[in-house]
Amino acid sequence: MTAPTPLKLLNREQAILEFNRRVLAQAQREDVPLLERLRYICIVSSNLDEFFEVRFADMLEAARDPLSTVTSQDVDRVGRAAHTLIDEQYRIFNEQLTPLLLKQRIVVLNHADRDEAQRRWVQKYFEREVRPLLVPVGLDPAHPFPQVANKSLHFIARLSGKDAFGRDNRIAIVKVPRVLPRVIKLPASLSDGRQAYALLTSVIRAHLEDLFPGRKVESFSQFRVTRDSDLEVDEEEIANLRHALRSGLTTRHFGRAVRLEVVNSCPTDLSEFLLEQFGLPPAALYRVNGPVNLVRLNELIDQTDAAHLRFRPFEPAWPTRRLPRHKSIFEKLKKGDVLLHHPFESFEPVVQLLREAVEDPDVLVIKQTIYRTGAKSELMDLLIEAARRGKEVMAVVELKARFDEEANINWAERLEAVGAQVVYGIVGYKTHAKLLMVTRREGGKLRRYAHISTGNYNPKTARLYTDLGMLTADADLTSDADSVFRQLASLGKFKAPRRMLLAPFNMHSRMIELLGQVEAAALGGYKAARVVVKINALTDAELIHALLRTAQAGAKIDLIVRGACMLPPGLPGVSDNIVVRSVVGRFLEHSRICYFRWAAPREGDDGEALFLSSADWMSRNMFRRIEVAWPVLEARLRQRVIDEALQPYLHDTKDAWQLGPDGRSLRIGGNDGISAQQALMRRYSE
């Protein structure tokens, strides 16, 4: 008897591009306000930049390793998919959004579109604001091709004639300074009742010849190179991770080139010259029909005065019944846990907890993990103030939070300067857990309070991402939180927490066990055996195969996976009991929830378990990060999570997509369907 053919999982990189295709589809939705549709275009550009900087760069590196399973054919296939997606992005921008903006009297004027008065204004702007910052470099043996930083915008020009010294040096490079705004709003007096803009590249292009007196610009193009930007340090060879990362930040911008973008009118000889300079194959060339780097159009969105073309403002609700304003959060938590559902509920109670802890003389110790807080953060300012007031402050700062390294290094140094104890987690493992713990003296005893979350300690993203957080004084959970902090500081032997799961130690194995428990129930004839998992990504092969076994036993499985999913659902006899959906709406879906049902409720056993977690179901999260998951034991809170954060998403017929076995997604329903996010906004507004 021949062994069954192993199931081929979906390609991770193509799954990431498929997620971005879902995001791009938001730009085509007529029920989304016009400027928000343009913002989705910008989001896709930003996502693709990171895709090339990290995922595609890693894929290229793996393809060069003879021991790797990644082949050059895999690279070509993903590259072609990226080309197709980017071409579609520019088509939507040019053919759909630009005409609609024009109807709203919002215009981006090229040089040919500008009238004489507008050209005079642009020329004065160029001479006053732009030209003094431009340094054109003519290439010759003494002026070699310049260092081009990651994602920095440049012009390349081919010039006529000879240079001032009679030499036939034809190629020149002009760097576009990053300090200049990329979108310039023209005065209302010159705009004829419209909101008119000029792109910085258009301003430079119109006056490019002025930079080369006595020579003509025969041809030119904008270009931008994307480089491998994953910050790598040899953690076994360094003595101080912070210092090594600080020095590494300066070289990150000059990693190996992986993508070259030029405008579609770029002459072949110039694009071939650039490919040669960057050591790139022809497949790495991306010709775009419009501005290179659409991310910068966020500046147009921000400058445009048109409230009706944006989402209506949404103000998160304060959980008044559970946390009355202006009353002690500590006193409230003594009566029970408080669950917060962001962004529908305010993140301010978390800030208020820390503020209260700083001001309370009975609070002795504050501990917090820091992953992505942002360059400005009231929470970090409060930790600094707590240390100044003599409280014991411990901050676990993750220095390798990708693209937030510099901000986190700065916070670490500021905290250390006021006497806070700063640790950087465990070498080789990112600290991704989201924990805040306060120890308070009460009646001669010490009592702990904690906040545990699926999301970051960042009030700004808490208004844009869906996440769940719990404020608790539960003795077991707070003791577990304290154990995690001690583990990170002391590097002692792992001791299993009472309730929490901790990666890389026991989270993965416990998830496998719970899936096995549901599988056994289904095999035993329990018809309601059920798994619902809401995560950002599903790429861990062992968890995928455990899900498949559970589904094949007869359990119904619903997966709500925002981003990359490598499990192919709907294969007859293999994964036909699994439905994978993705929800892409106004807010970024970010909460991680794992629900398992294996029996009907009976005394001493609810027959189900629900965990909230900081971790996605990826190998890196389970084995190379410090992550926490915690059970929601109170039936009332568990039901609330199900009612608000799972069920609505399983019935969404407006923002939801369903994944097919081939890795392609189809949108469920249409613009007149039911949106889980919109329903929750209405509920909390009321």
Automatic annotation (TrEMBL):
Start and end residues of each Polyphosphate kinase C-terminal domain: 328-490, 501-669
* Pfam families for this protein: PP_kinase, PP_kinase_C, PP_kinase_C_1, PP_kinase_N
Polyphosphate kinase middle domain boundaries = 118-300
The record's section on Gene3D superfamilies has: Endonuclease Chain A (3.30.870.10), Polyphosphate kinase middle domain (3.30.1840.10), Polyphosphate kinase N-terminal domain (1.20.58.310)
Q: Which GO terms describe its biological process?
A: polyphosphate biosynthetic process
Q: What EC number(s) does the entry state?
A: 2.7.4.1
**GO cellular component terms?**
polyphosphate kinase complex
Q: Which residues form the active site?
A: 432 (phosphohistidine intermediate)
Its UniProt entry gives the catalysed reaction(s) as: [phosphate](n) + ATP = [phosphate](n+1) + ADP
Q: MF terms per GO, please?
A: ATP binding; metal ion binding; polyphosphate kinase activity
Chain sites annotated for binding Mg(2+): 372, 402
PTM note says: An intermediate of this reaction is the autophosphorylated ppk in which a phosphate is covalently linked to a histidine residue through a N-P bond.
Q: Which cofactor does it need?
A: Mg(2+)
Per the entry, what this protein does is: Catalyzes the reversible transfer of the terminal phosphate of ATP to form a long-chain polyphosphate (polyP).
Q: HAMAP family this protein is in?
A: Polyphosphate_kinase (MF_00347)
Query: What is this protein identified as?
Result: Polyphosphate kinase
